[in-house]
Design goal:
Blueprint (H helix, E strand, L loop, with lengths): L2 H16 L7 H7 L1 H20 L4 H21 L4 H11 L4 H11 L2
Helix pairs in contact: 1-4, 3-4
Length: about 110
Amino acid sequence: MSSSDILAELDTLLAERRQASPEQSYVARLHAGGPAAIGKKVGEEAAEVIIAGMSPSAEGLVHEVADLWFHSMVLLNHHALDASMVLAELQRRFGVSGLEEKAARAAEGK
């Protein structure tokens, strides 16, 4: 199974669990808290990635990045977006210098 297939399956699962009872589903509970609660969780996971990145443990870093991706996908789902949109944006940037891309965003006021 390809990485994009895994992300698509996770998108489907997140959409299903969003409709579940918050008492029965962690994802539904996150959605019940709204974008601020989900964003707070994304921030916590990002901090854990930073901490794990300073450790020599590859396993710990991979685990924390998986948590960050998962919670980021919950936030995308909350806004009716999905991983395919992020993959398309990454594909759009492929072959473009990071410095050029950043300069273009600055020129657009982003």
